[in-house]
Amino acid sequence: MSTEQRSILVTNDDGITAPGIRQLVDVARSFGKVTVVAPDSPQSGMGHAVTISRPIRLEKTDLFDGIESYECSGTPADCVKVAVDQILHRKPDLVLSGINHGSNASINVLYSGTMSAAIEGAIEGIPSLGFSLTNYSRNADFGPGLPFIRRLIQRVITQGLPEGTLLNVNIPNPEDGQVKGIKVCRQAKAKWEENFAERTDPHGRNYYWLVGIFKDYDQGEDTDLYALSKGYVSVVPTLFDLTDHHFITNLNTWNLNE
Amino acid sequence: MSTEQRSILVTNDDGITAPGIRQLVDVARSFGKVTVVAPDSPQSGMGHAVTISRPIRLEKTDLFDGIESYECSGTPADCVKVAVDQILHRKPDLVLSGINHGSNASINVLYSGTMSAAIEGAIEGIPSLGFSLTNYSRNADFGPGLPFIRRLIQRVITQGLPEGTLLNVNIPNPEDGQVKGIKVCRQAKAKWEENFAERTDPHGRNYYWLVGIFKDYDQGEDTDLYALSKGYVSVVPTLFDLTDHHFITNLNTWNLNE
User: Taking CB atoms and an 8 Å cutoff, what residues of chain A touch B210?
Assistant: First the structure.
């Protein structure tokens, strides 16, 4: 397939005006005809939400020079669905989501709007990658990660991805700006240790803000968190078949019909 | 552990007033001390969303005789987090989510608020089960499924679940009301074939409603959709480690650092 023929959908969850998506569009345009469909407002923490009970708005923008782009009132997963059905009228050849401002390594893949868009692409049978930088700042420096993003897109175009598998790519933010390379990883066993900050409103009613500390419980050196801590880009091949295939055999010994 | 000592958290995504959660509470109360923390409004399709940028409200209710219950303005995943941190001040011994009005079989596990609450429980290291009835009606008959729900809860209490695995339980809705038994299954390969219905508002602007047709592409007889179609309760052991462990070896041959 020639670069002219390749249709690439770019989306994100930080919203269409976030710096991260501009960087990704600039990389993507050298690989094909890019279309941007991204949320009109930040959608972080939306997980795999879809908009069922409200309609979706879609507005053409001129935010990207020479690239067809739309802002969408829905979630990142909605963006992929509406792009395929209403804008492209076909499946794109590649779905790229990000670059997210903040890590989607480890358990964050579940909460991530960025990754939900990439998962939605994979469900549609499209090779899909989600990219995140482990820096929440709006002024984060995406530069050091870009050559690695370019390389990963190139490889996926060349090699393809198995049906049902997408890539969760996280980019480290080393103080010296030196990204060491790429490591293929598994999702680390880590979680948010939650608590809620309690406040009282002017009417005397309580409300709660979610706050949390991220804890890595994994000792492995083959995890995404480990690779990132050592200055490597982490690539986790990611499934949307959540079945615990190994446990099926065990569960069958429970004799659930007796 | 005695029944008196066992702490059981019940939540859902259809909202605290939905009939399905009443049925689940009635089953759960014979196994331990039940606390209900559920959304104050329907949260279907919320996936694994969490509420970061808004505070959460929590109000005590008297909707369940003799059972401490709270309605929460957050998502199902928020309900589990706030219950552990602000209400129980400890991890419960069991998290039960549902009974959802509508199927969460196959790919719906990803979009499901019901399952996100159960996944959140499992992330916390708590044995967790999500229950759904394949009937969207508010007046659905939950009766035929209840003995099977009771049995599954009993077995999980007796046998435990491996760390990182929860159960996605779907209950069929056979016309004759006869549920045939329980089958351990894998998640079927199926998806929503989306389209969007386009409308024009009184101001001449377009908007779009998500509509979709569910398509089962799986020929297997070991899937949740197959079991349900034959009148069986489907039980899919479900992971929140999304890593495609099999593909790691292959991806390492891509020589990503060259």
Answer: 50-52, 56, 78, 81
